[in-house]
Specification:
There is one protein chain. This protein is mainly alpha-helical. The chain is built from 18 helices and four strands. The chain is 73% helix and 2% strand. The chain has a two-stranded antiparallel ribbon with strand order 1-2. A two-stranded antiparallel sheet has the order 3-4. Helix 2 packs parallel to helix 10, helix 2 packs across helix 12 and helix 13 packs parallel to helix 18. It is globular.
Length: 434
């Protein structure tokens, strides 16, 4: 059976692990043990080990990918590529927020029998710890984004996972490397190409263990969450899921079909390992090595485009996060019976758009953004406790949307740049052979 599993394409292995994790999670009690050892601690060990392996790859892979992509670009190409990337990211995030706003106004999850649902809901017991984690944030904190773009110490930024500063440094390094002539330039370029090749091979090695890590991560979440926790927030949960599905399965495929002029189904197939990993890890950054591999090897996008768009997108392009921020803030306002004017709703849209870019690199990014929005519309920060119970599962879903949007940007921009062979069914390496 094990040999049969290893012969399956990677995305089928991950999907099987995901299905098994959910099935196992709903049938096992949180206090279950194996030979006297807590099952949750075993799952946590293997899940954390897999996440650590992915995070270990991020910095060298991102730096080598960006530098390699930049060093062969012409100055006019860089400006064109950058402008297209930013326009795509801003447009897709804005559309995601508007879809979320439409759904939350239509379904009104915070209203029960025509009345605000505050009396029938209780704050999560984790509210205080969550607020302590995110701290007191305001709209002015968005300005910190521009300071994080220029790190005081690039080594420290790499060690602390400050991806925005690392990306900025890598872009500058790659740009000036492209102007370096003679033997020094060739030696540098060979070094970075070699480093990128090594990191891709290391990524392939780590991904061989993805089914085990994903099983551990998802099984732990299912055991700890349980089905009962979702009942009081069922309508809110469904509202977010439906909005995410509209964006991921309607809007973005339309962009692929009519702008990139590629087959959306082939794109879903090519990105399946990355999407399932994003769902399991709840981290766009941790999924980045797999996203790069899928977009370049399976979808056929050049490193010139993917090396620029994907690391940047994993840091600043958060469609699912922006959508969730908007729906969560509107839901809390409905629960408290606050009537929001068009101007206030526009304020929520604007702050959600800015914070989805600005706080993406901060731990508990969505919670930070939601506290900023709550403060802007005059609601108590403790209200965030209303959504903590389902936040972890919804985080898994919105991360998948974030990663899918990044990949759509890479494919669309590659096609607009005139690249051929993108998502061709017969292209070499499209089929997963691992």
């Amino acid at each position: 059976m094990f040999k049969t599993m290893t012969r399956l394409p990677l995305h089928w292995q991950i999907l099987a692990a995901l299905t098994l994790a959910i099935t196992t999670g709903v049938t096992i009690a949180p206090d279950a043990d194996i030979f006297g050892i807590s099952l949750l601690s075993v799952l946590d060990f293997f899940g954390t080990l897999f996440l650590n392996a992915l995070k270990m790859l991020i910095v060298p892979l991102v730096v080598s990918s960006i530098v390699t992509g930049m060093m062969d670009l012409q100055p006019n190409t860089l400006g064109r590529l950058g402008s297209k990337t930013l326009i795509f990211y801003m447009l897709s995030s804005l559309v995601a927020i508007l879809i979320g706003l439409l759904m939350v106004n239509t379904l009104q999850p915070g209203i029960v029998d025509g009345q605000p649902a505050l009396e029938s809901m209780t704050l999560s017991s984790d509210t205080e710890s969550a607020l302590a984690k995110v701290g007191v944030k305001g709209a002015a904190d968005i300005a910190e984004v521009f300071l994080r773009m220029v790190p005081v110490n690039v080594v420290s930024a790499a060690a602390e996972g400050q991806m925005l500063g690392l990306i900025f440094f890598s872009l500058l390094f790659g740009y000036f490397l492209s102007h370096l002539k003679g033997s020094h330039g060739e030696v540098q370029k060979d070094f970075w190409r070699g480093l990128l090749s090594i990191m891709i091979q290391m990524t392939n090695l780590v991904m061989k263990f993805a089914p085990i890590g994903i099983f551990a991560l998802v099984c732990k979440v299912v055991i700890m969450s349980g089905a009962d926790a979702f009942r009081p927030l069922a309508v809110f949960f469904v509202t977010v899921i439906l909005a995410l599905m509209l964006h991921m399965f309607i809007f973005l495929p339309l962009i692929l079909k009519y702008v990139a002029k590629v087959n959306p189904m082939r794109h879903f197939k090519a990105l399946m390992p990355a999407l399932l990993t994003a769902f399991s890890t709840s981290s766009s950054s941790a999924t980045l090595p797999i996203t790069l591999d899928c977009v370049e090897r399976r979808a056929g996008v050049s490193n010139r485009v993917s090396g620029f768009t994907l690391p940047l997108g994993a840091t600043v392009n958060m469609d699912g996060t922006a959508l969730y921020e908007c729906v969560a803030a509107m839901f809390i306002a409905q629960v408290y019976g606050l009537e929001l004017t068009i101007v206030t709703q526009f304020t929520i849209v604007l702050i959600a758009l800015l914070t989805s870019i600005g706080v993406a690199g901060i731990p508990s990014a969505s919670l930070v953004a939601i506290t900023i929005i709550l403060g802007a519309i005059g609601l108590p920060l403790e209200a965030i406790g209303l959504i903590l119970v389902v936040d972890r599962v919804l985080d898994m879903c919105r991360t998948s949307v974030n990663v899918f949007s990044d990949s759509c940007a890479a494919v669309t921009i590659a096609r607009l740049e005139g690249e051929d062979g993108v998502l061709e069914e017969k292209r070499q390496g499209f089929q997963d052979t691992r």
